[in-house]
Amino acid sequence: MPDPREFLFLLPEMVLATAGMLLLVVGSVGRGTRNKASALFAALALLATGALVIWTQGRVESAEPILSGMFVLDSYAFFWKLLLVGASFLTVLLSVRFLGDGGYRPAEYYSLILLASTGMLLMVSGASLLSIWISLELMALSSYILAGYFKAERQSTEAAIKYFILGALSSGVLLYGISLLYGATGTVQLDALAQRLAEAGSVEPLVAVGWLLLAIGLFFKVAAVPFHVWTPDVYVGAPTPVTAYLASASKAASFAILIRIFYQGLAPLVVDWQLITAAVATLSMIWGNIAALTQSNVKRMLAYSSIGHAGYFLMGVLAASEDGLWAVLFYGVAYTVITIGVFGTVILLERREYAGETYSDYAGLAGRSPFLAACMLVFMVALTGIPPTGGFFGKIYLFAAAIESGWVWVAVVGVLTSAISLYFYMGIVVQMYLKESDRTTPAPLPAPGLAATVAICAAITVLLGILPGPLVEWAKASLLVIP
């Protein structure tokens, strides 16, 4: 029996889940619940959760398993938890004006954000394939509903249905892979799984099929080719703040568990999963960037861009080294901030006169709103990987880790596809600064909180390009203990 005191270490998750359920109840009994009041409650709950994450981590000296080994408290989980809480907090800020304009019930929306975030926090602490899968489903089920939250909009409903069907399929594949591994090794604990795979010496057919199915489920969650087909339609159809959330927090949490499972649970199979990861990374970088070239819708372009960036992340994963791991952590922070900033800018432009979803909507933006144009310029430069931004150092670290581990050809593909991405990212910049608009009224900034969020993301993006050292040191101090 686990010590009841161990539940105190899950206090951040319990507080966040309680706040989410409370908002859900309030929303179901009070139709007049105010948007700003619900957003404020959700934001305060996330701030309290962040404080509790810091408090619980301060009471742990080293990686400590809790609740019969279902979860682990280590510096790696602490890193991702703070990032996920921050991303969720910024998503709440992005949602206030957008949800108010949409006229949909706010309390349930913010409760789903909190419940999805609870699943993410539990995921990154998971030390068992079973606890990871259950936490993943909490995140996924909340995300399906969020994608279709604007139920009167056909695109939103279509996105939710596609996301649910394909997501349920991937979850089934993931669970089947887990069951096969359990049948072959008799355990779902990551440390025990690694030990028994090492003792076996050779890879049994049951183990091979099991870990391949497990990998397929994980690659779906991070939107890597060829398991990416849900991404463009969901990104375009979902409410834009939800798209930002899926592209930042959900992707970060999915990579966190992929790394933990590969580096710890499947460590003895490193040669096998490196080959698969290299192929998936290469396909993701090539297809994501080439497909983005043909897009006229900015959200769809960003969806394919996200697929390409999944390939860049996987370069660090396949390095299977400490350098590759901390490079992924660094890029996780940079990419999350950049992505939230990009979609925040799109939200600011989603007005009656300014749709913000096509390239032509950005024509003449530098004259209409120098602030938004400058922020968007920073984000586009960062996504391309040009200094002085966090995106530049993030890609440099990933490429270097891949080269040092012998995956030179994958790094070469990464460099070439980054050069290709220059075309569609800079296409927006050309529209903003070199094209004239037929609109004469200035682009409005109706939401100070939303504008401040975009400005903060732009500032952090530049700061990571000027002073990457502190984040690098934190990432190096947050590495997994690799068997």
Number of helices: 19
Low-confidence stretches: none
Helix content: over 70%
User: Which structural class do the helices and strands define?
Assistant: mainly alpha
Average pLDDT value? 88
Determine the strand fraction and express it as a percent band.
Answer: under 5%
Biggest sheet overview? 2 strands, antiparallel
- Topology as a string of helices (H) and strands (E): HHEEHHHHHHHHHHHHHHHHH
**Using DSSP, what is the number of strands?**
2
Shape: globular
Q: What is the CA-CA span between the terminal residues?
A: 27 Å
Q: What Rg, in angstroms, do the CA atoms define?
A: 21 Å
How do the strands line up in the largest sheet? 1-2
Describe the 3D structure:
The protein has helices spanning 11-29, 35-57, 75-102, 106-124, 129-147, 154-185, 190-200, 205-221, 231-237, 240-265, 270-293, 298-318, 322-349, 365-368, 370-384, 390-404, 408-434, 448-466, 469-476; strands at residues 64-66, 71-73. It starts with 10 loop residues before the first helix and ends in a 7-residue tail after the last helix. The model has no long low-confidence stretch (mean pLDDT 88). It is mostly helical. The chain has a two-stranded antiparallel ribbon with strand order 1-2. It has a domain at 266-483. Helix 3 (75-102) packs antiparallel against helix 4 (106-124). Strand 1 (64-66) and strand 2 form a beta hairpin. The protein is built from 19 helices and two strands.
